[in-house]
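Forum: Protein Structure Q&A
Topic: Joint prediction for protein chains with partners

I've read a bunch of threads here and the consensus seems to be that you should model interacting components together rather than docking separate models afterwards. I'd like to see that in practice. Below is the full input, 457 residues plus whatever partners are listed. Could one of the regulars post the assembled result?
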Amino acid sequence: MIPAPFDYVAASSAAHAIELLGEYGDDAKVLAGGHSLLPMMKLRLAAPAVLIDIARADGLAGISVDDGELVIGAITRHADLAASALVRADAPLLAHAASLVGDPQIRHRGTIGGSLAHADPAADLPLALVALGGSVELAGPGGTRQVAADDFFVGFFETALAEGELLTAVRVPRRPGVPWGYEKFVRRANDWAIVGVAAIDGRIALANMGPVPLRARAAEDALAAGATNAEAARLAVDGTSPGEDIHADRAFREHLARVLTRRALKQIS
Amino acid sequence: MMQVELTVNGERRSDDVEPRLLLVHYLREVCGLRAANIGCDTTSCGACTVLLNGESVKSCTMLAAQASGQDVVTAEGLAPAGELHPVQQAFRAEHGLQCGFCTPGMVMAAVSLLRENPSPTEEQVREGLEGNLCRCTGYHNIVRAVLAAARGSGGRPPMASTAGASGESAPLAGTAGQHANGQTEVTA
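Posted by a regular:
Agreed with the consensus. Here's the joint model:
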């Protein structure tokens, strides 16, 4: 399968990429690892006129510490995230989630910024970011703003990224030693979650239980009020709106969400 | 058209390509290297796996443009002409293939895996190869081959393959009993 023709521009820096986005506007798509975008282009589900490649742009790579947060450059690959001693120590849930994305070849190319901007509600990294209560840095011609994970995912494959903005970095709270749980139900080893659950520090997030990764707020509230894991897990589907597909109907997804929430909470306690 | 400059199997190249040219098509049709196969063409099967800067990638899901300035190795470039890389040798010794279509990608994935984890457990090998599908072997001999390569016991080079020559050969490298259910019997 061959993508429709396009022009290719390699951005030398984040600022250059933002300048190019301003120049080409809606015709352009940002390319990082390309592991969500290129398959869509090969299927002609996407046909951007211009690709702006940020994979080798300065200032978008690397993992660093900023007080209580880890700051992760947008083009940090899943393999680097999974192997990072810093991430494994301070945000092990995120390192674990990254280790579950696709397969080794995919993790050698796919990036955290790309996965978040793609915003697949069944994907691992959006789930992890919502569970961790992280945020993203969005840079545009007018400057940089920080958007919380809960506000970043606004619809099915839709984010708060405005036209001309580039996701430049991801921030997650450092929680060394804080127990966490992660459960992902898949049919094939390297697949997206049919349902996924991530839990840490009183927060519970669900993948593929609606158009965006969701918080299981009723279950969180119950836990905070002293409910048992089993009692809280029964509330995991409150406020969700799971879709139906060949893998699971609504009732099965709701069943999975309750069971996986209980298991994720059990990993913590 | 745009110019890409990259190193393929140690050779520096410069080619004019369409921006939409996929790396696997570049390797097969521009470079004439046919080891990387196009299987599923959807990032699932791994038959097109090559090394980019030493790491396994699926060349059906990458543009030649994205590889510009970087180092690509295909199965043809793993060892000098006429010789086999230790992982290739292990696949040969352990009969880690049947039809052979998945093999170049499987070998490249294994080379990358062993570079990241030189002494993997069987489980780590199975997980490390989850991006590569084989529809013939049931994976057992493939996993055995990768474990043998990790132990440095994937068999001697073809020219020195007579039994008992050096004692370097661990049990798995002999004439293995292929039907021994999970356990290898050495009959040589």
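Chain B has two domains: 2-77, 86-173.
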